[in-house]
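Changelog note: in this version the structure field was regenerated for every chain. One regenerated record is shown below for reference.
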Amino acid sequence: MKTETKLEHEIDSSTHVKIQELLGSSFPQYPSRTYYKQLPHLRHLVWDHGALVAQVGIDHRMIKNGDTPLRIFGIIDLCVATSTRSRGIASHLLVEIEAAARSSEVDAILLFADDPRVYLANGYQSVANRAKWLMINDHETLGIAEKPVGEMMVKMLSGASWGEDVVDLLGYLF
């Protein structure tokens, strides 16, 4: 297997088709495109004999946890093809993301999980903060929301600590 990191704007159209197929097979209600609300900044792609078997989008941004601004990597739509699950591919991607985050002086990795098991096994913790974000639906801004969200998970990488205050995502919910 081969893993590559690509800036979103460098991904060619044939790869976008493969990403769309993988996302659609992994998430049944996924729209017929390569992003849910907004394009990620970059992706990690895993290939096995020319087939795309896993992908994850990364959003690099600032957020605010209470009064503390934090540099984060937001994990978006990590998925592994059904035929290659239980082979450690998701954990491998999380290790690569963490290494890149540490070398970029990122304070934390943040995500919203449908199934937290792989993240818990890789040192992420569930947090119950309220979140504030820009609501986007089908390419339209609907307003600002502030409420609890599903399974928010974080892995702190710097000396900063995670507080229980509102998390302002300073953008969309990835």
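Spot check on this record: The chain has a mean pLDDT of 96. The beta strands are 2-7, 42-48, 51-65, 68-80, 108-113, 125-127, 130-137, 140-148, 151-156, 167-172.
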